[in-house]
Design brief:
Elements: H1 5-8, H2 13-25, H3 28-31, H4 36-51, H5 64-92
Amino acid sequence: MAYDPSRDCPRGDCIVAAIERINAANSAARLSQGSPAEWANESYNVARGLVYGDLPHSPGVLRASYQDAAFWVVIDQLGKAGLRLALVVNQSLR
């Protein structure tokens, strides 16, 4: 069964908890390495390989397994992006 935010996470708190777990597992020091261009390339490669690479060939039809896998990839990338954005903002305010 595919992840359904309105059913599985109606208040959005489980998504926030997932992002917090991801950020706890990925140290800020490790995620802050590299440049914004390298971060963009990392995201592109993840999307190309894990999200776009497994798209079904029939338009408009997404398998539940694809939706489940892609959802958690997106959550992981959003967690990294949020942490990296905070690092850039903090550095710019020094």
